Amino acid sequence: MSDAVRPDELEVVPADEASWDDIRAVFGTTDYPGRCQCQRYRVLDHDWRAATPEERAARLREQTGCDDPGARSTAGLVAYLDGEPVGWAAVAPRTDFLRLLRTRVPWTGRTEDRADAGVWAVTCLLTRRGFRGRGITYGLARATVPYARDHGARALEAYPMLTVPGVEITWGELHVGARQVFAEAGFREVSRPTLRRAVMRVDFYE
């Protein structure tokens, strides 16, 4: 990996401490992140299909509370490299992600209480175009752990893809992150509901 970025080279801040211009720069407007605006797991299918990218962006702006440090609520983390916004992690109580609660895959073979608000989830790791392939998601995944713990989470989950040499994974699929990224951040695998998807988890104990 050329020009790899170490986790300690990133400054990762809660989204309310970032500007809307910085968040927009990370998401862009042309490829999957620009269309999704991190709403895929937050809304049900009919709301997803009905919304335009502009409407999804407006929802994201409201959810982040950006440009308002200390906002009553926020959602997500923004990563900076040398002052430049380069990455995003969606991390919030699992109950905030309505579609996730109704998606079959994460729950296959599990008896987990889906309505447990004490469990948080990481549903998206995003690297800005022009900075991809440098390992920025490793630092983002690592930052989600203390952030969730410090905000009262009892556990933190992620639902990454398993990358296999020679098997192509599209950017739209990999927005959930790669298994190795979360493993290096201290998550352990608790289930593998499909051949290409794992459920990873960190439990916090007092």
Helix and strand arrangement:
Blueprint: E1 10-14, H1 20-27, H2 32-36, H3 45-50, H4 53-64, E2 77-81, E3 84-93, H5 98-102, E4 119-127, H6 136-150, E5 155-158, H7 171-174, H8 179-184, E6 188-194, E7 197-203
Parallel strand pairs: 4-5
Antiparallel strand pairs: 1-2, 2-3, 3-4, 5-7, 6-7
Quick synopsis:
Helices cover 30% and strands 23% of the residues. The protein is an alpha+beta fold and 206 residues long.
Spell out the key features of this protein.
7-stranded mixed sheet, alpha+beta, 206 residues, Aminopeptidase
Describe this structure in words.
The chain has helices at residues 20-27, 32-36, 45-50, 53-64, 98-102, 136-150, 171-174, 179-184; strands at 10-14, 77-81, 84-93, 119-127, 155-158, 188-194, 197-203. With 206 residues, the protein is α+β, with helices and mostly antiparallel strands. It has a single domain (7-203), classed as Aminopeptidase, CATH 3.40.630.30. It has a seven-stranded mixed beta sheet, sandwiched between helices. The model has no long low-confidence stretch (mean pLDDT 91).
